[in-house]
Amino acid sequence: MDPEQEDEAEVLAAQAPVMQAAWAFAGAFWVDHDMRAAWRATHPTLRRCWAQAWLMPLLGQARADGYDPDEVVEAFAADEVEHDLWRPFARTQAQQGATLPVDRETWGVKVNPDFIAPDVMLVRLLPIPPGGVIQPGEQYVSVPLLMQYDEGPGWRLLNFVSEQIPVPGWPPQLGN
């Protein structure tokens, strides 16, 4: 292997953990429709925003049923959610995720992620083009997967709605 190929191999090896983490979410959510596995692959900031976005149109009913929306959101921020509203949330989100026809054979995560911040990378989930390579200037449809690194858990999904860092709140700011 010549030095240029060695450098490229080192770069790809360094990117492998973020690519694997991105695919852990994509495979669990869009292929397997397994919300528990997908949830573990997400960052707590996204979990809060996602729960808030789901609860926004249901706030009045949630309160009438005795739920404090902030307590629901905090319960949903855990890796393993144990809350009465988890099942309805997971069911509706898995159904919405089923609308993107991702499979392991024809979709992949684009190499060479964009660095957004020192601990944040943007990678893209996309259908694999013929030959497996996107040609220069070629247009392609993709799903943004904003990934954040944390000590301990490593890379986790921070956003898949847009390329923006999400901000929890009522309403949450997820981007587009």
Describe what is shown at a glance.
This protein is α+β, with helices and mostly antiparallel strands and 176 residues long. It has 6 helices and 5 strands.
Describe this structure in words.
By secondary structure, this protein is α+β, with helices and mostly antiparallel strands. The protein is 41% helix and 16% strand. The chain contains 6 helices and 5 strands. The protein has helices at residues 3-31, 35-40, 44-55, 59-64, 69-76, 86-97; strands at residues 107-109, 114-117, 120-127, 143-150, 154-159. Strands 1, 2, 3, 4 and 5 form a 5-stranded antiparallel sheet that branches. Helix 3 packs antiparallel against helix 5 (69-76). The radius of gyration is 18 Å and the shape is elongated. The termini are far apart. The model has no long low-confidence stretch (mean pLDDT 89).
Task: Outline the low-pLDDT stretches.
Answer: none
What's the total helix number? 6
DSSP, total strands? 5
Radius of gyration from CA coordinates: 18 Å
